[in-house]
Automatic annotation (TrEMBL):
It comes from Clarias magur (Asian catfish). It comes from the Eukaryota. GO terms for biological process: axon guidance; negative regulation of transcription by RNA polymerase II; neural crest cell migration; ossification involved in bone maturation; positive regulation of cell migration; semaphorin-plexin signaling pathway. One of its GO terms (cellular component) is plasma membrane. Keywords: Glycoprotein. GO terms for molecular function: chemorepellent activity; semaphorin receptor binding. This is Semaphorin-4E-like. InterPro entries: Semap_dom, Semap_dom_sf, Semaphorin, WD40/YVTN_repeat-like_dom_sf. Residues 1-85 form the Sema domain.
Length: 85
């Protein structure tokens, strides 16, 4: 089977990562401009059909500090990301 996870890594708790374990280990590289202080909420596997399980989708739900707005205080926004299998 496969295990997908999203968490904060490193001893300071400042490196957000998404990982997949399947016959080895795959994780995202860390770039500070990809995620801004994320709060991972959950994941959902959506089966598209039994004929081709590679078409299944995995959605990641999280919130993060909005970088596209220029406010004087931190603004958290909700996000949904689709994970490629």
């Amino acid at each position: 089977g496969e295990l997908y996870s999203a968490t904060i890594e490193n001893f300071l708790g400042m490196e957000p990562v998404m990982m997949r374990s399947l016959n080895g280990f795959i994780r995202t590289e860390f770039h500070s401009y990809w995620l801004s202080d994320p709060n991972f909420i959950g994941m959902k596997h959506v089966a598209e059909g039994e004929e081709n399980p590679d078409d299944d989708k995995i959605y990641l739900f999280f919130s993060e500090a909005a970088m596209e707005f220029d406010f004087y205080k931190k603004l958290d926004v909700s996000r949904v990301a689709r994970i490629c299998k």
